[in-house]
Amino acid sequence: KPLEEHRSRLSWLEEKRGQLATALQELRDASRQEGAGLTQLVHRAETLRRELKSLKVAAEAGREGEARAQRKLEAMDSTVAASQQRQQALERSVADLRAEVQGLRADLAAAVSAGGGGGGQKTPRRAR
Length: 128
Fold this sequence. Notes:
Strand content: under 5%
Shape: rod-shaped
Oligomer: single chain
Distance between the termini: 145 Å
Radius of gyration: 51 Å
Order of helices and strands: H
Mean pLDDT: 91
Largest sheet: none
């Protein structure tokens, strides 16, 4: 009977060893799958970090470009204002010169009609 008990116990131990070996293999397979999944996640995280860095650089470049454009617009605004002032001053000068030319023409016409052709007499010139 002790031999039979020993064989029975040995059989039970062999069965448990087989179950443990199967469980160990399942754990190894699960660990390998987890490792592969973890590797994929690490690669994905690294890719996302690089993309984030690129987006930050692009955003900074966009902000710098916007600031440059704003400075150019402000410079153009002041240039436009100065140009408008110069244009207004030139328009006043043109109006003054036209008035002077009309006055000179009137003086010339008056001198020609008064002198009968002018006869070589010089008409005094108006002061500007």
